[in-house]
Amino acid sequence: MIDLKNLHHRYRELLLDDVVPFWFRHGIDRTHGGVLTCMNDDGTLVSGDKFIWSQARSVWTFSALYNRIEKRQEFLEAAENSIRFLLAHGRDNNGRWVYHTDREGRVIEGPTSIYSDCFAIYGFSEHYRATKDGPLLSIALETFERVRRRLEEPDFSETAPYPLPLGWKNHGIPMMLTEVTNELAQTTADSRFDALATEYAGRVMKHFVRPDRNVILEFLTADYKELPPPAGTFVMPGHAIESMWFVMHLAERLGDKDLISRAAEVMRRHLELGWDEKFGGIFLSRDIEGHPPYLPHSEMKVWWPHVEALYGTLLAHHLTGESWCLDWHEKVAEWTWAHFPAPEFGEWRQRLNREGKPTTDIVALPVKDPFHLPRGIILILQLLERMQADQAELSGVGSAHGTGRQK
Fold first, then answer.
1. What was the pLDDT predicted at 357?
2. N or C, fewer C-beta in 10 Å, the chain?
3. Cβ distance 316 to 266 under 8 Å?
């Protein structure tokens, strides 16, 4: 049985003694607003450039720290520092969120990534829960409606850093919108978002999860047919694991046990597919037919898939009770804690080679932002508290039954 109390202490200590101080020390740009994210693992700055999705992610993280961990004013102030930068520099004249600015906020690359918009919605929704800032929530809702319209445009390709070829659909958009709309449903209590979240989760589960292989393909044609290799056989285990806990969040809230079970099995398949049996750890990407990889760095071990797996397996265990979930959680945790922590810096290392040694090779973007690791820890801590409460309740029931008292 997992030691919930000690695990909670371990993650809380990591979050509040290491990760958060790192970002307050190195990340918050107190001169120009927002956060600095183009940095090495030790916090030394490589560039002052700012990717807007990282700015929006920081709003979610600092707001969630306030909402879900401790109501420290410094957390809200950090979130609002990023919000001010975003509102001043993050949108073009049509209200679309841009992709990339310099440190002062001058636009380098315009609205080339719909993920900037999605993370703005995500962050502002979480911040609204702390402050009830109606105008900010209105911006989030307006952004959401604009995203919906943009996705219907026949020439849509705005998925930087990897633009979407015309005639393709990708897993990342319905995946992201599953979680975004599920969060909006809880923030606004508007049942319309329940229906939309169900719609987006359905696209993932009915189309991108291929039933014959139980894998999530990252790319399909516009009518959800499979593409030829290597794009059509490209799988990202960490992305799939993250996607499945998004689906589980929705399914738990709606009481859909069948969907929880299906998502858990898809998660299990990608743990099996992604695990490196020789050196341990989760590969960044795989080709399910053994073709050369669609994207480079496929054999690297990157921090975020491991963080997603730590939370995802724990959530799957909580929701299903299946023993394999804890087996995989412990397997991933052992490798992750042995390789990614960098206590001399505070935050975890981001990128390792296949053997588990630190590397400076850049994957996608030269960015280290306050999101995957702190978000994962925040969610793990919340889940562990729920699990402890359930355990205490069961213990109380057992005690009551043993003494003839009713609970």
1. 96
2. N
3. no
Token duo for residue 128: 């609204």
Q: Is 82 exposed, middle or buried (0-12, 13-18, 19+ CB in 10 A)?
A: buried
CA distance 127 to 123: 6
* Tokens describing residue 120: 């703005």
pLDDT digits (tens, 9 = 90+) for 233-246: 999 999 999 999 99
- List Cβ<8 Å contacts ≥24 apart for 231-235: 231/168, 231/294, 233/287, 233/288, 233/289, 233/291, 233/294, 234/285, 234/287, 234/293, 234/294, 234/295, 235/270, 235/273, 235/285, 235/286, 235/287, 235/288
Residues 340, 347: Cα–Cα separation, whole Å? 9
What is the signed CA dihedral for 21, 27, 29, 33, rounded to 10 degrees?
-100
**SS3 label, residue 352:** strand
d(C-alpha 195, C-alpha 81), whole Å: 33
Residue 203 belongs to a domain: yes
Split into its structural domains, the chain has a count of 1
Rounded Cα distance, 200 and 123, in Å: 19
CA 38 from chain centre, in angstroms, equals: 19
CA distances from 399 to 48, 336, 353 (A): 59, 38, 51
Helix (H, G, I), strand (E, B) or coil at 49: coil
Is 132 contained in some domain? no
222 lies in a domain?
yes
pTM for this one?
Answer: 0.95
CA 224/CA 159 separation, integer angstroms? 18
Task: Give the DSSP H/E element, type plus range, for residue 333.
Answer: helix 323-339
CA–CA dist 242, 294 (Å, integer): 20
- For 245, the domain range is 170-340
Q: What is the pLDDT of residues 325-372, one digit of tens each?
A: 999 999 999 999 999 999 999 899 999 999 999 988 877 678 899 999
**Which phi and psi (to 5°) does residue 211 adopt?**
-65, -30
Burial 242-266 (b: 16+ CB within 10 A, else e): bbbbbbbbbbbebebeebbbbbbbb
The β-bridge relationship of strands 209-210 and 168-170 is unpaired
Pairing of strands 215-216, 209-210: antiparallel
Residue 9 lies in a domain: no
The CATH number assigned to the domain holding 204 equals 1.50.10.10
